[in-house]
Amino acid sequence: MRFKQWVLGIIATVTLVVAATGIYPASWLFFYQPEVPAELRK
After folding, report:
1. Does the keyword Transmembrane apply (predicted)?
2. How far apart are alpha carbons 33 and 42 in whole angstroms?
3. What is the model's pLDDT at position 11?
4. Which of 5, 27, 28, 39 has its CA 20 to 30 A from that of 15?
5. Which carries the bigger pLDDT value, residue 2 or residue 1?
């Protein structure tokens, strides 16, 4: 039971970090960040 809580805690932490930084997980894997189109930049 303790291991299950630990795993869920890790998953929650990773999810919050991804949501806070706005980086897609696939971009972490390939170290690739697509360029933002000019019309979306402010």
Report:
1. yes
2. 18
3. 92
4. 39
5. 2
**Where exactly are the structural domains of the chain?**
2-40
Residues ≥6 apart with Cβ < 8 Å to 18: 24, 25
- The pLDDT score that the predictor gives to residue 17 is 80
Rounded Cα–Cα distance for residues 4 and 7 (Å): 5
Tens of pLDDT, residues 9-32:
999 998 888 777 766 655 555 556
Query: DSSP states of 1-42 as a string?
Result: -HHHHHHHHHHHHHHHHHHHHT--HHHHHHT--PPPPGGG--
Residue recorded with tokens 């360029």: 35
Question: What is the per-residue pLDDT for 26?
Answer: 56
